[in-house]
TrEMBL record:
Source species taxonomy: Bacteria, Pseudomonadati, Pseudomonadota, Alphaproteobacteria, Hyphomicrobiales
Segments for region (Disordered): 332-357
InterPro entries cross-referenced by the UniProt entry: P-loop_NTPase
Protein name per its UniProtKB record: Sulfotransferase family protein
Basic residues: bias regions: 332-347
Gene3D superfamilies: P-loop containing nucleotide triphosphate hydrolases
Length: 370
C-alpha cells in the first residue's frame, strides 16, 4: 500500500526542524520506505498551489501562458512531485508545510481535489501536532513578531481565537476523521523525544529514525528582541518596506542574535487567554485523547529588571533597520545587474589582407580591428 502524508503543522511544534532534518536525510529515509518530496525543504508550494488552482485550474491542466511566475513555478513543482510519487511502489510519500493548517474550509476541500487528481491510489493521512493552546499562543506571537510586521501589543490584543481546533476539524471534515493523525507535541517533549522520531513512528516507519541526525532551526527570539521589533516593524511599514523573503530572512537573523530572557506576555494578556486555552485543551483531550500540559509561563512584569533599557533597545532597532536597508540595496543591485544581463561580445572583425594596399597597411599598423 502507498501512503501520502500531509504534515500540516501546527506552527512552533518542530516543523522547521523536521523539514530540515528530512530534507538532509532523503536517501536514508527512502531506504526505510519514507520518501520526503524533493521539490524543496518546506513544501510551501503545496499550500500556495491551492489559490493558484482556484485562479487558473488544476495542476497539469492549467494553461501556464500568462500565469504569474510564482504560480507557474508552483504548478511545475507539484507536477514534478506527482511524477516522483508515481515511482514509489510502496511506503510513504510525504509533504510538510505548516501553512496548510491555516487554510479555509473551501481551500482544504480544493486541496483534497488536487491530491486526488495528482496522487491517485494513495491512501492519504493528515499529520498534525498540537501543543497546549497557551504555549501555542505565546510561541505563535513571537513568531509573528519575528517574521512579520506585528508588535507585542497587537499579538496580545489578538489573544487566542480557537484556530487549532478549527484547523484540525476542517481537515477531519474533508479528509475524514480516520485520515487524521493528531499528536501531542507536549507529550513528545515530556518524553525527551524528538518530533522527527515521533513523526516517523506516527506514520508507520519507526525504524527510519535510527541514526537520524536531528537538525535544529527556527529558534524563538528573546523578549529583548521582541521589544526591538516593536520599533523595527512599524518603521518598516512607515517606510513602505514590504517584508519579503529577503527582509524576513535578514530580520529573523538579526533579531535571533539579541540575547535576553524568553519572550513573555504581560499579566493582563495572560489572564485574558488562559480561559479559552484551557477550554480548547480539554476539547483536544476528549476528541483526540491528547495530553496537553499547561505551561508554567513567565510574566513580563516579573522579568522587567532583566530587560534592556529603552535607549539600548532603540540603538539595536537603528542597527537592524540599517542592516535591512543594506540587504535591500544589495538585492536591488543584483536584480538590476541581472536585468541588464551580460552584453554580448562583439564579433572579432577580420583584419584586411595587407597586400600592399596603402589603407590596408595603415590598418595593419594601427590594428583597427574594432
Amino acid at each position: 500500500m502507498r501512503q501520502l502524508v500531509l504534515h500540516v503543522g501546527s506552527i512552533k511544534t518542530g516543523s522547521t526542524s523536521a523539514q530540515t532534518t528530512f530534507a538532509a536525510s532523503r536517501e536514508r529515509l527512502a531506504a526505510h520506505g519514507v520518501h520526503y518530496a524533493s521539490i524543496s525543504r518546506n513544501h510551501g508550494a503545496v499550500s500556495r498551489v491551492i489559490r493558484a488552482t482556484r485562479r487558473n485550474g488544476f495542476p497539469g491542466e492549467a494553461d501556464l501562458a500568462g500565469v504569474r511566475a510564482q504560480e507557474a513555478s508552483d504548478f511545475t513543482l507539484m507536477e514534478r512531485a506527482a511524477a516522483e510519487a508515481a515511482t514509489v511502489k510502496s511506503g510513504t510519500y510525504m509533504f510538510s508545510s505548516e501553512a496548510l493548517l491555516t487554510h479555509s474550509a473551501r481551500n482544504v476541500a480544493l486541496l483534497k481535489s488536487i491530491v486526488d487528481r495528482l496522487f491517485p491510489d494513495f491512501a492519504v493521512s493528515v499529520l498534525v501536532y498540537i501543543r497546549h493552546p497557551l504555549s501555542y499562543t505565546i510561541s505563535r506571537g513571537q513568531n509573528e513578531i519575528k517574521l512579520g510586521t506585528d508588535t507585542t501589543a497587537l499579538i496580545e490584543e489578538r489573544g487566542y481565537d480557537g484556530e487549532l481546533r478549527v484547523g484540525v476539524e476542517r481537515y477531519a471534515e474533508v479528509f475524514g476523521r480516520d485520515a487524521m493523525i493528531v499528536r501531542s507535541y507536549d507529550a513528545v517533549i515530556a518524553d525527551g523525544r524528538s518530533v522527527q522520531e515521533d513523526m516517523l513512528e506516527a506514520i508507520g516507519h519507526p525504524g527510519a529514525a535510527e541514526g537520524l541526525v536531528i537538525e535544529r532551526s527556527n529558534e524563538s527570539i528573546s523578549m529583548n528582541a521582541a521589544l526591538v521589533a516593536d520599533i523595527v516593524n512599524p518603521a518598516l511599514a512607515e517606510r513602505g518596506i514590504r517584508v519579503d523573503a529577503n527582509v524576513r530572512r535578514a530580520k529573523k537573523q538579526l533579531l535571533s542574535e539579541i540575547a535576553g530572557p524568553r519572550f513573555a506576555f504581560s499579566r493582563a494578556a495572560l489572564d485574558a487567554v488562559r480561559g479559552p486555552c484551557r477550554t480548547e485543551a480539554a476539547w483536544f483531550a476528549e476528541a483526540y485523547g491528547l495530553a496537553l500540559s499547561e505551561p508554567k509561563v513567565v510574566v513580563r512584569e516579573d522579568i522587567a529588571d532583566k530587560l534592556m533599557p529603552a535607549d539600548e533597545i532603540a540603538d539595536h532597532a537603528d542597527r537592524v533597520l540599517e542592516r535591512i536597508s543594506a540587504v535591500r540595496q544589495a538585492v536591488a543591485k543584483r536584480k538590476a545587474k541581472k536585468a541588464r544581463g551580460r552584453k554580448p561580445r562583439r564579433e572579432q572583425k577580420k583584419e584586411p589582407d595587407p597586400s600592399g594596399n596603402f589603407f590596408a597597411k595603415l590598418i595593419k599598423r594601427f590594428r583597427f580591428s574594432r
